[in-house]
Write a structure and sequence with these properties.
By secondary structure, this protein is mostly beta strands. It is 3% helix and 55% strand.
């Protein structure tokens, strides 16, 4: 056993080890329980604000597949099984959580609430029966790998006021009976990426990316998302600032309802560049698959309609039924984006757009 590693075999030892990590040189806490045993907490575990007075210290919590639960009845509304206070000033501490199953039992609790940290890794974890699964706030650089949220009533993965956040191979399973959950809620996050994500069950919004701070520029990417869920409002909802969002690979099933994508912009300062949305590779759109934009114009409107402000520029590439992507039936109330471009294959390349300029000449 490493001198910096502590093995704990019960809840009391686990709580004590985390508290002591603030003043000793522990860098790894490993949970080892007997087969089929759960770690039952009698109070929320609070991660200390400082770790060994060393802002560069990394604390690893290795669960070995253990399930962490609270006592029957939970700890109360908006409390977490494991959490770090929003009042913590030390944002440079680093944390790793591996191979842990969180089970709140109560639908009013959070599983893991981690705030104010740098260089975070959370992998192979499950977040079950909760109000919020994984809550991140004021985080500088985090990677979430192979994690699952199951039966969350509010948010599966929630991230607020953070930077450089990546989710890989992660999944949200909503409760079909309620469909109130938002799979990913990402608010004022500068640079965020979802890779190979899945949404199942019932969901209100699959992925929500919202920028309300005018000095935070949109920088958002989805690389392959599979939605096999009954979606109540939208698969993807965007509220953007100057900058861009890129959605590459959206795989829908016939159970899909609501908008595929709803995109709008905040009130941009005068002279700001309009946000751009690039949508690529949607191999299936059912007849009722629709999109929504704010500040659009009626489909097939004349070109002399005044140019709007505070809108999103939409571009589509390799989307099924591309010939009809700008038809009124595909858009909420028949309003299509004013600034729009679509490029797709039929037998040969086809381009549909509201205006083009080639060699300084409009065509």
């Amino acid at each position: 056993m490493s001198a910096n590693k502590i093995v704990v075999t019960n809840a009391a030892a686990f709580v004590a080890a985390i508290a002591a990590a603030a003043t000793n040189d522990t860098t790894c806490i490993e949970i080892q329980l007997s087969a089929n045993d759960d770690l039952i907490l009698t109070a929320p575990v609070v991660i200390p604000p400082d770790l060994f007075a060393n802002s560069a210290k990394r604390l690893i919590i290795e669960g070995n597949g253990v399930t962490i639960k609270c006592i029957v009845g939970g700890f109360g509304i908006n409390t977490a099984l494991i959490g770090r206070s929003s009042n913590t000033d030390n944002t440079s501490c680093s944390f790793v959580f591996r191979n842990i199953n969180f089970d709140c039992i109560s639908s009013q609790m959070y599983c893991l609430n981690l705030q104010n940290a740098t260089d975070v890794i959370i992998e192979n974890c499950k977040f079950n029966n909760c109000k919020r699964g994984l809550f991140l706030k004021n985080i500088n650089t985090a990677t979430v790998n192979n994690c699952v949220v199951n039966n969350s009533t509010e948010y599966g993965f929630y991230c607020d006021i953070s930077n450089n956040i990546v989710y890989n191979n992660s999944k949200v399973i909503g409760a079909t009976s309620s469909a109130t959950c938002i799979g990913w809620s990402l608010n004022n996050v500068q640079t965020v990426e979802l890779n190979n994500s899945q949404i199942q069950g019932g969901i209100h919004i699959g992925v929500e990316y919202i920028i309300t701070d005018p000095i935070v520029y949109s920088n958002f990417k989805i690389n392959n998302i599979t939605i096999t869920a009954l979606v109540k409002y939208a698969g993807i909802k965007l509220v953007m600032n100057s900058g861009f969002a890129q959605i590459d690979g959206v795989y829908l099933t016939n159970f899909f309802a609501g908008y595929v994508i709803d995109a709008s912009s905040i009130n941009l300062p005068t002279g700001s560049t309009l946000p751009h949305l690039y949508v690529k590779n949607i191999p299936l759109l059912s007849s009722n698959s629709t999109f929504k934009t704010v500040g659009g114009v009626p489909a097939n409107s004349p070109c002399n309609i005044p140019q709007p402000s505070n809108v999103v520029v939409w571009e589509f590439y390799e989307v099924t039924d591309g010939d009809n992507i700008w038809s009124a039936a595909r858009w909420d109330d028949g309003y299509v984006p004013y600034y729009r471009y679509a490029e797709f294959f039929s037998e040969s390349k086809t381009i549909l757009t509201n205006a083009m300029t080639i060699n300084s000449k409009p065509i």
